[in-house]
Amino acid sequence: MKVILREDVANLGKSGELVTVKDGFGRNYLLPRKLAVAATEQNVRQLEHERAVITARNAKLKGAAEEQAKKLGAVKVTIRRKVGEQDKLYGSVTVLDIAEALAAQGQTVDRRQLHLAEPIKATGQYEVELRLHRDVTAKIKVEVAAEA
């Protein structure tokens, strides 16, 4: 089945591309979620027309993401947690905690943009990657400290 992607799909393609997928994947996943449209003649002609619009939109989104990355590059977040022996935390610090701490500082970030290999379970300083766009990433400094 040939489909035209309306949004970027991981391991498949970018928005505006014409790709071939298995019938079930296209019919049961891509089409209902409006991630793609069937590649009919009319849709292919419309795709050609919309490529310029899609390119302009992606450039605008990338520019906004780069601007936000500059602002977030200087941000430092401090999270206080109860600690036990050897500076190990009771529980852990997750991306949700980091997103809430950023929101408290006035920086709105979707928690799904934060990428943490595994939850933080000890005190110290960490760098957390923030993927704002597929080509733009920023590093946020996170300090986990003991509660007084």
TrEMBL record:
<dbReference type="GO" id="GO:0019843">
    <property type="term" value="F:rRNA binding"/>
</dbReference>
<dbReference type="Pfam" id="PF01281">
    <property type="entry name" value="Ribosomal_L9_N"/>
</dbReference>
<dbReference type="GO" id="GO:0003735">
    <property type="term" value="F:structural constituent of ribosome"/>
</dbReference>
<keyword id="KW-0694">RNA-binding</keyword>
<comment type="similarity">
    <text>Belongs to the bacterial ribosomal protein bL9 family.</text>
</comment>
<dbReference type="InterPro" id="IPR036791">
    <property type="entry name" value="Ribosomal_bL9_C_sf"/>
</dbReference>
<keyword id="KW-0689">Ribosomal protein</keyword>
<dbReference type="InterPro" id="IPR020594">
    <property type="entry name" value="Ribosomal_bL9_bac/chp"/>
</dbReference>
<dbReference type="InterPro" id="IPR020070">
    <property type="entry name" value="Ribosomal_bL9_N"/>
</dbReference>
<protein>
    <recommendedName>
        <fullName>Large ribosomal subunit protein bL9</fullName>
    </recommendedName>
</protein>
<dbReference type="InterPro" id="IPR020069">
    <property type="entry name" value="Ribosomal_bL9_C"/>
</dbReference>
<feature type="domain" description="Ribosomal protein L9">
    <location>
        <begin position="13"/>
        <end position="40"/>
    </location>
</feature>
<dbReference type="GO" id="GO:1990904">
    <property type="term" value="C:ribonucleoprotein complex"/>
</dbReference>
<keyword id="KW-0699">rRNA-binding</keyword>
<dbReference type="InterPro" id="IPR036935">
    <property type="entry name" value="Ribosomal_bL9_N_sf"/>
</dbReference>
<dbReference type="GO" id="GO:0005840">
    <property type="term" value="C:ribosome"/>
</dbReference>
<dbReference type="InterPro" id="IPR009027">
    <property type="entry name" value="Ribosomal_bL9/RNase_H1_N"/>
</dbReference>
<dbReference type="GO" id="GO:0006412">
    <property type="term" value="P:translation"/>
</dbReference>
<dbReference type="InterPro" id="IPR000244">
    <property type="entry name" value="Ribosomal_bL9"/>
</dbReference>
<keyword id="KW-0687">Ribonucleoprotein</keyword>
<dbReference type="Pfam" id="PF03948">
    <property type="entry name" value="Ribosomal_L9_C"/>
</dbReference>
<comment type="function">
    <text>Binds to the 23S rRNA.</text>
</comment>
